[in-house]
Each structure stands twice: as structure tokens, then as C-alpha cells.
Write a structure and sequence with these properties.
AB_hydrolase_fold, Sec-Metab_Biosynth_Hydrolase, Rossmann fold, hydrolase activity, Alpha/beta hydrolase, 6-stranded parallel beta sheet, AB_hydrolase_1, 8 strands, alpha/beta
């Protein structure tokens, strides 16, 4: 019996939208993967999980569910869907049951850079545009980093407060891409979360925008996950 090739579903994080996945999308499509990009609103965890499930409902499975940054919290909650066969975290949060992004960032490692998040306005957060490039996109060309800074999507405080009910990584295999020069989620925190989840870890030099700057590395890890679940299905 021929195994059904996995569909890859990409979930973005806070302050950005799904267009940042374009290079990863192109590489995966070139390798023959079906790919979907979720445009999650990042207003609340509940709403973002619903956006993922809206996409999953149109697929047969199996699915490799990929999340960047806050998208890791989204796929942790949404990934319990029966169609999801594997999780890939890209410099992402990996909360456990009862945790939220807020609880994960409450006690940063000593000496860790502090993301330049401005005080909330009308229930939403933004990054200081003058400090955006250094914090979020230090390895992108200045023009590209400036565009990301000036096209920020407001990130809802309710999204950061959203609590995980049943973490998908407790029942699904996971992979984690660590970015060694990440100034948004400190590498030691990335490593600790990946180890706790039992993820297969790949480490790459790059910023928090590794999914934009190193689409080859991101695609390679997604492809590894897709191959692993295809082999397991035989």
C-alpha cells in the first residue's frame, strides 16, 4: 500500500503574517509537498486554533503542522487533531498543559535580551520599529527588516494569555529548529522547551526570522519530519 504524502501546514507567529513563509512554501512545493499557509489573526489563542482547524478540515491528512514563534503555542493546542501526524517548531514556544506564552516569558534566563515590546494599546502589542531589526530580523537585508517593522500585525494580549489545554507534543512526534542568534526567544529557553517535548533538534545560525533568512534549513527539517511519518505509515 502506498503511503499518502504529508501535507505541510504553516502557522506564523506574532507581529507578522503568513507571507513570511513564501520561500519555505516555494521550496516545499518544489519537493512535491502540498502546502497550506494559515493566516491566523493572532488576536487570541482560541481564534488562532480555530483558524488552523478551518484549514485542517479541508485536508485528509496526514499533516505536518509547523509553527514559528507564537505559532508554536498555536500548533501545540491545534495539533491534537487526528489529521496531524507530526509537529515542527521553528524558534517557537512549546508550552505544556496549563501554560501560556505569558508564563513562558515570565522568567527569562539571566542576561537574555529583552524584546522591545511596546506597552499594550487597545489590547494589542507591537515592537518598537527602531529596534525591530536588531531584535527580530538581524540577519535579513535592512530593507526587508524595515518592511517587516513597518507592516507589523498587532499581537493581541489575549493571544499571549491563551492557556494550553492538551499539548499535542505529548502524543505526536516533534522536531525543533533552534536559531542561535535569536533575540526574541533566548536559545537556552528554546533548548529547554525542545528537550522537555522530546523533540528532534536541529541548530542553525540565524535570527528569530530564521524562517525567512534560512528557508533551506527550515524546509530540510520539515522534509525530515514528513519522511519520518511516511516511513512510520508503512
Amino acid at each position: 500500500m502506498n503511503a499518502v504524502p504529508a501535507t505541510v501546514v504553516l502557522v506564523h507567529g506574532g507581529f507578522v503574517d503568513g507571507s513570511g513563509w513564501r520561500a519555505v512554501y516555494d521550496l516545499l512545493a518544489r519537493e512535491g509537498h502540498q502546502v497550506r499557509v494559515v493566516q491566523n489573526p493572532t488576536s487570541s489563542l482560541t481564534g488562532d486554533v480555530a483558524a488552523v482547524r478551518w484549514v485542517l478540515d479541508r485536508l485528509d491528512g496526514p499533516v505536518v503542522l509547523v509553527g514559528h514563534s507564537y505559532g508554536g503555542a498555536v500548533i501545540t493546542e491545534a495539533g491534537t487533531d487526528e489529521r496531524v501526524a507530526a509537529l515542527v517548531y521553528v524558534t517557537a514556544f512549546v508550552p505544556d498543559r496549563g501554560e501560556s506564552v505569558n508564563t513562558l516569558i515570565a522568567d527569562p534566563p539571566p542576561g537574555a535580551p529583552v524584546p522591545p515590546i511596546l506597552p499594550p494599546r487597545d489590547g494589542f502589542l507591537a515592537l518598537d520599529r527602531e529596534k525591530f531589526a536588531a531584535a527580530f530580523a538581524a540577519d535579513l537585508p535592512p530593507e526587508q527588516a524595515a518592511f517587516l517593522a513597518d507592516s507589523q500585525v498587532p499581537w493581541g494580549v489575549d493571544a499571549l494569555a491563551g492557556v494550553i489545554t492538551e499539548p499535542a507534543w505529548r502524543s505526536k512526534p516533534s522536531w525543533y529548529l533552534m536559531a542561535t542568534d535569536d533575540h526574541m526567544i533566548p536559545p537556552p529557553a528554546q533548548q529547554a522547551m525542545a528537550e522537555r517535548a522530546g523533540s528532534t533538534v536541529s541548530e542553525v545560525t540565524g535570527s528569530h526570522s530564521i524562517y525567512v533568512s534560512r528557508p533551506d534549513a527550515v524546509t530540510a527539517l520539515i522534509h525530515e519530519a514528513a519522511q519520518a511519518i511516511t516511513v512510520a505509515a508503512h
